[in-house]
């Protein structure tokens, strides 16, 4: 639905000469030839603004091409190919051809030249900086390969349609028109791989397609009255030609590259002979040059969309200004925002700059599409009509070039190619002409430079480039001012899609805006103005500040900025939420939704809930909703208490129902009655309430980027709101509202509560309410599995309700009816027990089983053990029950298996099973409870001693030395045994104190002190072993790292030691070390069978191993932990030996302190900053350290803590 509007027409004047032969435009330079003169216009490092060069060659110059890569001009006569150096004004190279040249063409990169000769030979030449060299040779008469039809039948039976009936081909009558016998025309495809030749043979014209190596691929069949112009699509398979019908009408004929006719289009607007057809290099767009009977020249520009060619622009040139030629300018990028056309005439060289624009009314969703003299209007507010259809159309007598919509009124102005102006009123169903101004027809190359509407009236100011200074014409209510202006490099661009009356904005040469719109919003009484702009390279500006790139279209609607992006997303911003725009805007934090790649905004409908209309690259349109706008609409409507309309919008737009609740929970709570009444029926109400979520706010989760309007935060318990809705439904009419009640309970409370509600309604009146309850059960069956409903129904213990559930299911009555009958013949407790089992509720089953008087104890015990119900049985029984002892014993046994001996003892003690409790306390080593139970059981001294001795043995075995000593000393009266236990476990200080308490000095001198001194000597040796081990490991690590540095350096130079295999494990990992040393995980590539072997290598300290460095680091980390934690033991031993051997205690203290200090000093070298940071580097010293770090366990990658290395040290030692 794009239209084409001219933004600028820049004119370059030159000598008025009728003898111009050929032109070329490239990189801002214009080259023309006149006889043997080369004339160059423009600024370039090798040219002046205008220079004339005389080329002294035999013959007349006929072709020119500026080769911008080398600042060389290619020239050609009928027999010579010439390279001309502009800077030195000399001919570099000349090549003569065998046969006169009829036509030639360059590929887009100017590396290959294709020439058609008079004898119909085709030659290709390769161009380099200094010369042109013949590459291939062929002929227009070359045979084309016969196509092979695979799987489609013969050529006469292909593509016959679903009925397999081939449509009869229409026989075209021979026209009296003579096919022109002109020279062949050649055109290359955009990528230069193919080219097509339109040539004359035996009073007919043919198309033939060649590859770049001149291999003939395809040739067309004869086509009646096919003319000589041809154009190959820049990026595609189409070839455009034209023909004359019997009625003398012009017809555009589109061939495919296989030279088969693809489509034919009538061109009634072309009344004359076509001189040139040219595809745009990148877009499906055609420019056609033709002249009429008065020798006036016209250039028509067409856009292809929806299977039609839309006539968008016409450039008019009177008979006194002849058009030599024209060419499209390649804009390098396929952005489809602008296009440029250069036209060579006898008076000027014109550079036309066009933009693609969607013409729409700012007040309504009315879009106008230009197609020549017909304007198609689509009223999207009333009906979505896919293109090329429209709501209505208006026909003008001349091709229309531009449509101007009034910013405030429902009217527009048409300006045709002759600058006739017509004012139209946009009605509800039709377009009405108000007035017109067509008394003036201006000369050639008119340009609309600027226009504007004045105030709120239908007044327009129009400026054009013309020889007339100023013309003012007033007709009815319309005043038109035409003002002359010379050609200028400045561009005046209008403000589109705005409700402000603004003049056009003049841009300087550095500004490349192609779309402008301006809007003002009110914020706390202050006006905020926003000017939004799009540039030709899809950059998006706000108030001349670049915000982001890749924006394909934008539209401001109802205070929202909506734009599409090349990342296949549509974005929407509230203008009142974003007052400042910077170039670091985060698109991820803006509302967005996925759209089809290439979709652009056409319009927005003015409905209660607006729809955004997008047009896709294929030409089809789609309507989407912006949920952020919908949410704002809902908020405004809820403020007006329009709950019914809100529910309708939410349902149509498929907005999450949580919006109702999360927008304002307090408001929703106070309008529960309005909400329920607006739902109209239980089905809608159930759907809404079941979608409510109780945990999160939807504007903090899946609607997070909707940026809701600024409003207070509500700290509300949403479950209480749900409960209030439930209570309201129950209090109004619980029977008719049962469906909604059940839906709420099933979703937000439990399935059991939902079925219980159905059961209560059913039991209140079984006959009347059976139908309602049946529908509720069927509703539950949609959301829940029948097995779950069946289980809950059994646990409600009502056989009539259970039968109702079965009747509304798909279960076989032959199965469930006998079972229900059996239940009816049972006692109450037995029935509830077995129904609980059937409902898979074993907790309830054991409760009823323990109350079932006739149940045998063995059955109860087996049932509890088999179903692991010991805990549930215990918690559901009281002490008065006759099975209390049995249940306590079973649960205590379970706890004992779980090693919860103390808890088992408590249960058994409560059940007065004291002997069994004593055994559990013994297992738990709770000697205080054991002694207390011995007294309660009235054990004799010998029995008590035996129990205590067993406890002491078990305590010592579990390293509970303190408890064992207390029992020996206090309860067994054996203090010497207690001293012996302390000495045996190296607790010398306490042993000495206990011996001194009982005045056993001989025991101290003869047993405790010798053992103490012997242990101190052992500790001295142990510290010395730790020191030697530390020095060995740390020194070896330094050596390994030094060797790694050397090997990595030599390997990078390609030098390996004689002892190293080039394909060894070490050398094979050097290359990967450069890319990312830390990413190496060799074990991950091994098979599972060898993985354990690989893990063992990582801790192997064998010298020369690949993992030796990390094995050493691991061993050092373990040694550090052992030595640092050794301090507390040394502290106790030094304190014990201080009075008995001060020198030995001092040495022991000093040696451990010195070892710890030396180890602390080496930490920064072993776990260096380089090793810990693990940064990528090409430095060999860094790679050698971090190469295997990822294979080291995480706990060894950081240095050990030194906090425990100094806290133990004593101040009484030097």
From TrEMBL:
Component of the elongator complex which is required for multiple tRNA modifications, including mcm5U (5-methoxycarbonylmethyl uridine), mcm5s2U (5-methoxycarbonylmethyl-2-thiouridine), and ncm5U (5-carbamoylmethyl uridine). The elongator complex catalyzes formation of carboxymethyluridine in the wobble base at position 34 in tRNAs. One of its GO terms (cellular component) is nucleus. Pathway: tRNA modification; 5-methoxycarbonylmethyl-2-thiouridine-tRNA biosynthesis. Pfam families: A-sol_ELP1 (PF23925), Beta-prop_ELP1_1st (PF04762), Beta-prop_ELP1_2nd (PF23797), HB_ELP1 (PF23936). SUPFAM superfamilies: WD40 repeat-like. It comes from the Eukaryota. Keywords: Cytoplasm, Nucleus, tRNA processing. Residues 61-328 form the ELP1 first N-terminal beta-propeller domain. Its main location: cytoplasm. The gene is LOC114337186. This is Elongator complex protein 1. GO terms for biological process: tRNA wobble base 5-methoxycarbonylmethyl-2-thiouridinylation. Residues 1074-1094 are annotated as: Disordered.
